[in-house]
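User: Run a structure prediction on this.
Assistant: Running it now.
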Amino acid sequence: MVEENSLNTQLSEAPVHESSTRGAGPSIRISAASERGATQPAAETGTVVELKDVSCFYGSFRAVRNVDIKVARQRITALIGPSGCGKSTLLRTMNRMNDLVPSYRAEGTVLLDGQDLFARGVDPVAIRRRVGMVFQKPNPFPKTVWENVAFGPKINGYKGDLDELVERSLRRAALWDDVKDKLQQSGMALSGGQQQRLCIARTIAVDPEVILMDEPCSALDPRSTLQIEELMAELKKDYTIVIVTHNMQQAARASDTTIFMTMGEDRAGYVVEEGETVEIFTNPRNQLTEDYVSGRFG
């Protein structure tokens, strides 16, 4: 991996407080930034995305049941829980990405800034411009670096200076210094971490309100993971971020709010507990949450 510029002080060097839940289990490092974020009530930032009694189905199988959550503006919200509990399904419901799956349907209400995303006449393509998506595996287009970033604005009729927009988006994704002399080279020739940041630059180029990230670091090495986490911390100044992660340390380091999901006997996922990240990892209210974050199951 080529040398990359960090946006902030290395998280590993930031002051941390090491805590564990009440029971035995691995300790979780909570960053000082997470603790500071925990002092800012969600009510002060406002709710951007709200799910009310949402259930998701694939054919006759109910994958997620009766979910009620709120996602606060300009914060990082982590969805955690065991595999198969519906985290990615819920994430993709927030921008109607699952509409592309023929057997999928959703019940309940999903609101974006108070607008019902499943109301009659709502254009799902327009929703996906407002709620961008970064996937688990970096998926740059088989185009140049420049074309990857410019693609979305071009098809949406952007009238400004595309070169300036591409540079600004790459800078915001902490990638400009690495690729400024490679703009006409294929985006697929970049390293894994660079490809993922190129996908983030491509997402923010269309100026979304919310960025969804589905395990964006699972295929990356630790250094690239750290850089993505630093980038998320920078981007939340302007965007609302929701991340699905199986990495408890990542959720503790990077998020402000954590939502823990698990499965019932019917294999349908549901929300067990939602709260400030520092509380979820150090003083959870529910025994299931404590067991999961302390490594007893999952």
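The two ends are 32 Å apart (CA to CA).
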